Fold this sequence. Notes:
The protein is an alpha/beta fold and about 375 residues long. Helices cover about 40% and strands about 20% of the residues.
Amino acid sequence: MSREFSFDLLKQDDQSQARRGRVHTRQGTIETPVFMPVGTQGTVKAMLPESLKEVQAQIILANTYHLFLRPGHHLVQRLGGLHRFMNWDRPILTDSGGFQVFSLGDLRKISEEGVRFQSHLDGSSHTLTPESSIEVQQALGADIIMAFDECIPYPSSREYVLDSTRRSSRWARRCKQAHRAEDGSALFGIVQGGMHSDLRAASVEDLLEIGFHGYAVGGLSVGEEASLMYDVMDWTLPLLPADKPRYVMGVGTPENLIEGVSRGVDMFDCVMPTRNARNGVLFTTFGKISIKQARYLEDPLPIDPACGCYVCRNYSRAYLRHLYQSGEILASVLNTHHNLHYYLHLMEEVRQAIEAGRFLAFKNDFYRRRQAATPAAAEDAL
Length: 382
């Protein structure tokens, strides 16, 4: 399926900045607001592609850094691209690798040219530049690709944030020049600027001058408190064009998603539902529960009586606890299925609420259900 990238803004909420939209890519259409499951190495851990479709995943995220190191983008390209390689026929977004390089700490060195780093796999030395990041992403065949930037550590001095943000803007221009638009992929710019409103505004100004298919807010969920994260969204999102998709990267909890939507975010990704699932933490309409707790030893109830996913229709908390305590692989499979269903169903409900003009009522009910949680569930949610 081939089509030109575009974004339709279908509805703007009257009582908030929440938006209902539709992103068109060469591989299919994405209804927004949307949550993107993370498939870092060309797989969403513990999920078959068919299972992802069952939980209504519209688009998944893969990562440049990891696929560059293993198995290599040229190999993936020779085998028909990432869609064929992983048997996924819906849209794919690739992160540029900037965040992963940032997380390497002392194993990387940043310069104007790019980032020289040591592989976490074998210690071998490699370089990622704006140009090579774009080359890798286009070789993988992603539908939406991200400009290469530096994810700024928190906290950082204003001087460091200023230098880094200006460098990311220069890198963004090089990414735009390296991007081969004729292949049909869409290139998103990433707003940096740390926790400074004026530097965020300056970053937006630079990116708008360059011009991108969409705009992401990066440098969040790096250890700052939630209130500061929301402040950055409040400063930044209104500066972005209304006719382009807005993506907040690496965020986050269900509460983060609801607050982000209310501020005008269209796209989210985070490892939280999958990583928590593998650690026995499950998301529900009344908060989180830790399935390893002894209180679930003989509990015949589903994870969430209000959930209609395959897991909640067929398995008890007692069985899921047994699987987890026994170290069974099926524990990760079932827990991940449920958590992703929860996240994706939540976003479906958000879209319906915006369409119906009742997003604020939906948001209030979302918090009310958590506040009304049983003491045991509330304890688990801590």
